[in-house]
Amino acid sequence: MTAQHVMVGEQPEPDGGELPAYHIASVGRALTLLTAFIERSQLTVSEAADLLDVAPSTAHRLLQMLLHHHFVEQGERRVYVRGPALGALTEAGNRPPDVESVALPHLRHLRDELHGTAHLLALEGNGARFLMGAEWRDETRIASSRVGWLLPAHTLAGGKAMLAKLSRAQIEALFPDGLPVTRYARVRTPTQLQAELADVRSRGYARSREAHENVTAIGVALPLRPGARLMAVSVAWSDTRFPNRQECHIVDALQTAVQKISSELTRLGEDASRR
C-alpha cells in the first residue's frame, strides 16, 4: 500500500480548523461541492448552504458556476444533480458498487435511532474520507455533516476502526515519518497508535474525541471483503449530547448496520460478476 500523508489543513473546515497557506475560499467551497456530488445523487441550494456553512445566495452562485461547466444539472424543483462533466471524472473511480444506495438508508436509520450524525468513511492513504452522511440537526450544529472531508485517520473513530483492520507492518508503512500533527490528538506517536489500535481490536469498535474538541464519536469498520477498500461507519454527537450510558446499545446498532451494508455490497458485487 502506498504511503500517503494527510495534513490537517487539507480540507477547508468551517469550524475554524487549519487551512492551506494559500487558501482560496471560493475554490475550496466549489471542490467541497464537487466531492459531495460524487457521493450524493442530488443537492438542494439549502443543503449546499448547510454543507458549506454559507448563505443560500452564496451556495446558489457556486452551484450555477458548476452548472455552467456541466459538472451539475438542474433537475425538477430546482434540485441539482450530477452532470456529464462530473460523470466523466468519476467513471474510472474504484468505488464499491452502489455504495450510496446501499449505505444511505442504514446511515439514516442510525441517525434517527441514535440521535447523532452518521457517516460512511473510507481509508485513503493514512487519512479517512467522509463518503456520505446523515446529519442529526440540533441547536449546537457541532457534530455536523463532514461529507467530502479528508482527515487524519488516527484522529477519527471510523478512521481508527479501519486502521485496526491492518497489520502492524501495514500501519508502519502508512506512517513512515510519524503521525501528522493535529490540534486535539491524544495519540501522537506510532507506539501510542499501535497500542490504541490493539484496544480497538479487543473492543471491536473505536472511540474518538480527537478530530474536534467538542465532538465524541464511535466507529465500527465494515468486515474486510476481497478487493474492496476499507470502510467504516461512525456516529458523532456534541459532547453535551453524547449518551454515555447507551454505549453498548450504540455499538450494537453500528455493528448491525455494518454487517448489513457489507452483506448487501457483497451480494451486489456477486450479481454484477454474473452479468
Automatic annotation (TrEMBL):
Residues 85-267 form the IclR-ED domain. One of its GO terms (biological process) is negative regulation of DNA-templated transcription. Keywords: DNA-binding, Transcription, Transcription regulation. One of its GO terms (molecular function) is DNA binding. The keyword Cell wall biogenesis/degradation does not apply. It comes from the Bacteria. Residues 24-84 form the HTH iclR-type domain. PANTHER family: HELIX-TURN-HELIX TRANSCRIPTIONAL REGULATOR, ICLR FAMILY (PTHR30136), HTH-TYPE TRANSCRIPTIONAL REPRESSOR ALLR (PTHR30136:SF24). This is Helix-turn-helix domain-containing protein. It comes from Streptomyces spongiae. The lineage of its organism: Bacteria, Bacillati, Actinomycetota, Actinomycetes, Kitasatosporales.
